[in-house]
Write a structure and sequence with these properties.
By secondary structure, this protein is of the alpha/beta class. Helix content is 37%, strand content 19%. Helix 8 links the parallel strand 9 and strand 10. The termini are close together.
Length: 267
């Protein structure tokens, strides 16, 4: 798989693996640091600028591995998914549903991009979100209960949550695989992982890397993975927290980015 990096905050400068990709030319590096209107929310002008830069880099489809900074930019998954021209299922590893209504207008956001994919992408068959915090899954269930019957039934049919408490469930992979189209686009937000494996800018779950790789390998054995994206870096202004110093955070994220890239390229 080819690698593309969309750099928004320069956080990758402190990761030797990612810097190595840039300097060696092993990755297509797209500079997005000068694009206004991109932090958490991505306005229409910014969306078009990002799409133009992807096209200018010679990229014509959603294939390969895409890195794009911290969780504030998870809406990039929608921009990549918009390039898919065949029926597919979207499989997301995330501690949050990312199904919120926009706070203003119809703007693309890190917290509502999944909903916009469902509303706007004519090729999407269904969505599975793995590792969602239990209480957030319950909140979403309550929210859709108040919606009109048609909209409620459509969401219940197309969206499946694998809650954090269900991650160790027996036969999880086989039941998951049976719900999906033959084509899968994967989106990995590292905040689904335990803080032992990554340091992100959102609250994190408890998924371990071995389980993440086992699920992906199982899906790849029976489905076509048409593209993958990875986000969930630390915030650029991160100064340390209860789990990590800045140096520890960078070392963890560098290690997991390398591990995931090598794993995915060898599927």
């Amino acid at each position: 798989m080819s690698i593309t990096v969309c750099n928004f905050t320069n956080v990758y400068e402190d990761q030797p693996f990612m810097e190595g990709l840039r300097h060696s030319g092993e990755a297509t590096w797209i500079d997005c640091t000068d694009i206004p209107g991109t932090d958490c929310y991505c306005d229409d002008e910014a969306v078009e600028t990002i799409r133009r830069r992807i096209a200018d880099a010679g990229i014509k489809d959603a294939g390969g591995i895409h890195f794009f900074d911290n969780g504030n930019y998870h809406y990039m998954s929608k921009i990549w998914a918009d390039m898919i021209q065949e029926p597919f299922s979207l499989v997301i590893f995330d501690h949050h549903p990312d199904m919120q209504e926009p706070r203003f207008g119809n703007i693309l956001s890190c917290g509502g991009w999944v909903k916009k994919v469902l509303e706007e992408n004519k090729f999407i068959d269904n969505v599975v979100i793995i590792g969602v915090a239990n209480h957030l899954a319950e909140e979403f269930k309550s929210e859709i209960a108040s919606q009109p019957a048609d909209a409620r039934n459509d969401l219940q049919h197309k969206v499946t949550f694998i809650r954090e408490s269900e991650l160790g469930k027996e036969n999880l992979l086989s039941s998951l695989a049976s719900r999906l189209s033959s084509n899968i686009y994967l989106s990995i937000d590292k905040d689904a992982l335990s803080p032992a494996y990554a340091a992100t800018n959102w609250d994190q779950g408890s998924l371990d890397v071995a389980a993440l790789k086992e699920i992906i390998a199982g899906l790849a054995a029976s489905h076509k993975i048409i593209g993958v994206d990875i986000c969930g870096e630390r915030a650029r202004d991160f100064a340390g927290d209860e789990y990590h110093t800045v140096q520890e955070a960078d070392a963890l994220n560098d290690r997991i980015n390398r591990e995931l890239a090598e794993f995915l390229q060898n599927l």
